[in-house]
Structure formats: C-alpha cells, structure tokens
Amino acid sequence: MAKIAAVLSSSLAKKYTMALSGLFLIVFLLEHLYTNLLLYAGDGGIKFNEASHEMTSSLFIRIVEIVLFAAIILHVVQATLLTQQNAKARPIKYAVSAVNETSDWFSRNMGLTGSLILFFIVVHLYNFFVPYRITGEVGDGQEYTLAQCVVAALRNEVYAGIYLLSVIFLGFHLNHGFQSAFQTLGFSNKTYAPLLKMAGTGLALIFTLGYGSFPILVYTGILGCDILPQ
Predict the structure, then answer these.
(1) Which residue from 76, 162, 66 is spatially nearest to 120, judged by alpha carbons?
(2) Centroid of chain to Cα 37
(3) DSSP secondary structure code for residue 226 in this structure
(4) Rounded Cα distance, 152 and 100, in Å
(5) pTM (2 decimals)?
(6) Could you say which architecture CATH assigns to the domain 10-219?
(7) Pairwise CA distance, residues 163 & 161, whole Å
(8) Burial of residue 111, with CB atoms counted within 10 A of its CB: 0-12 exposed, 13-18 middle, 19 or more buried
(9) Cβ pair 182, 203 in contact under 8 A
(10) Closest of 178, 172, 203 to residue 193, by C-alpha
(11) For the chain, how far is it from start to end, CA to CA, in angstroms?
(12) Cα 99–100–105 angle (5° rounding)?
C-alpha cells in the first residue's frame, strides 16, 4: 500500500492525472459549445431548452456530470500540488530575462489563467446549474426558460464582460495545456509536436470564437431578441 501511495503521489502521477482530466474537460467543452450553439437556431430557444432538459433526465449525463466535477477538482488540486512542488524544487528563481526567452507570458502563468477560469466556472454554476438542476428556481422564481435566463444574463454588461474575459483566458490556457497534456502522455517527438501545436491552436480558436460570440452578439442585441419574452 505504501508503494502504491508513493506512486500515486509522485510528480509523474500528478502530471498524468492533470493531463487526462484536462483532456476530458476539453471533450466536455466541445459538447457544451454544441449545446450553446443551438441558441443560433432562430426558434426562440426551443432546441436549446429541449437539449438542456434531455440532459437533466439522462442517467448517463448524470454520471458524466459526477465525472466532470471530479475532473475539475482533480485538475485544480494536481495543478496546485505541481506548482508548489516545482516552486520547492527551484528555490532560486530564474532571471526574468532568461525565462522570457524560452516561454511566453501565458505558459508561465497557467496557474493564474486557470484560477480566473475556475472563478468563472463557480459563478457560471451558481447562476445556471444550481437554479436549474438543484433548486429548480430558474429566473428567480419567474416562469422563464433556461434560454431566456442565458440571454438575460448576457444582456448584463458585468456578466457579459466577465464571460468574454474568461473565454479569452480559456483560449490561451487551452492552447498551452492541450500541447502539454499530450507531451506528458508521451507524444512529444518531432513528428507529433507540430501537429499538436496546430491542434491546440485550432481548438483554442474554436472555443474563443465560439464561446466568445455569445456575450458579444447577445449584449449587442444581434442574438436573443426572439428568445426573450416580448
């Protein structure tokens, strides 16, 4: 047991856990983006509401949700532990100029961008997951659909601004994290590295443009006029 515990607590195990949990979260983000894009259907939010309702009645989705929350917790915990471990291993910090020559700001501050994304996740869950899935009081007790609540929230300049800023940080965080995850899993040779870099950048752009379009288009009134009650 002691040997197993030592292996699980090793630096390599932490990196594998963080890599796998991160890749799982990317899959979830793709699915979540697809559901959100149903708001563009022009049907008053019907397809979006139907898809959201189907997820609440599916046992499989409930299980995935548990795995999702576990993945978020594991990803955050392992990232924190690895950051502390790396800091202890390098008590003398590198010169700033030397670091800047080998990495960009976002790759050096994955912890910061990750913390900002985590803050948004908590806010997002509080505004939508908790009332829709736990308390059942969507729209402060009013007879609003989930699509109407989403549009109403994004019409608020504060929430729309936080949403857009978080999406931008998500794009940079994912661009570096995607490549790092596969490198941890052993795909770091000259053949895979360029492909992983392209794939990471492509996914980052998809998420940034996809998710970022909602606060911009909804807040400016281009999207959502057919969803809000008249």
Answers:
(1) 162
(2) 16
(3) T
(4) 42
(5) 0.82
(6) Up-down Bundle (1.20)
(7) 5
(8) middle
(9) no
(10) 178
(11) 63
(12) 105
Q: How far is CA 74 from CA 13, 80, 85, 163, in A?
A: 12, 10, 16, 23
Q: What is the 3-state secondary structure (H, E, C) of 124-145?
A: HHHHHHHHHHHHCCCCCCCCCC
Q: How far apart are CA 177 and CA 102, in angstroms?
A: 16
Which two structure tokens, joined as six digits, stand for 130? 């908790």
Contact present, 114 and 53 (Cβ < 8 Å):
no
Residues in the chain: 230
Task: Kindly state the DSSP code that residue 29 receives in the 8-state scheme.
Answer: H
pLDDT at residue 135 is higher than 80? no
Q: What is the rounded distance in angstroms from the CA atom of residue 163 to the CA atom of residue 158?
A: 9
User: pLDDT for 180-213, tens place per residue?
Assistant: 888 888 887 778 888 888 999 999 999 999 999 9
Cβ 176 vs Cβ 108: under 8 Å:
no
- Break the chain into its structural domains and give their ranges: 10-219
Tens digit of pLDDT for each residue in 47-101? 999 998 887 777 887 788 888 888 888 888 888 887 777 667 665 544 444 445 4
Tokens describing residue 138: 């969507």
Which residues, other chains included, contact 76 with Cβ-Cβ below 8 Å and sequence gap of 6+? Answer: 114, 118
